[in-house]
Amino acid sequence: MSKLDTVIHAPNRLQICAALSTSAELEFKFLKEQLDVSDSVLSKHLKTLEEAGYISINKRSDFARPRSWIALTSLGRKAFAGHVAALKDIVSGLE
């Protein structure tokens, strides 16, 4: 049986990982809009995920405007898949 990952388990971090799992990378502003949170709230969650090695943040300029692009690392993809498996185990145990 898989174990829940306490880093990913927080609702906003779970949503961040879910969104990132479908793309190579996503822009900070897009994630902020999807989660409907402030810059500071998103930054805090991204920092937690980055410290765990689950995401990488790449800052680059597009049209002279700095932007942050976030991607799941291979460790992050593995951790997210394990967390989803643990959630499925819990749900299937209820049937």
Explained architecture:
By secondary structure, the chain is of the alpha+beta class. It has one domain (6-86): Orthogonal Bundle (Arc Repressor Mutant, subunit A), CATH 1.10.10.10. It is built from five helices and three strands. It has helices spanning 6-9, 11-20, 28-35, 39-51, 74-92, and strands at 26-27, 55-62, 65-72. It has a three-stranded antiparallel sheet. It is elongated. The mean pLDDT is 93.
Write the layout of secondary structure elements.
Elements: H1 6-9, H2 11-20, E1 26-27, H3 28-35, H4 39-51, E2 55-62, E3 65-72, H5 74-92
Antiparallel strand pairs: 1-3, 2-3
Labels describing this entry:
95 residues; alpha+beta; three-stranded antiparallel β-sheet; ArsR-like_HTH; WH_DNA-bd_dom
Main pleated sheet: 3 strands, antiparallel
CATH 2nd-level architecture: Orthogonal Bundle
For the record, what is the CATH homologous superfamily label? Winged helix-like DNA-binding domain superfamily/Winged helix DNA-binding domain
Strand content: 15-25%
**Shape label:** elongated
Question: Order of strands across the biggest sheet?
Answer: 1-3-2
* Count of β-strands: 3
Share of helix among residues? 55-70%
Number of domains: 1
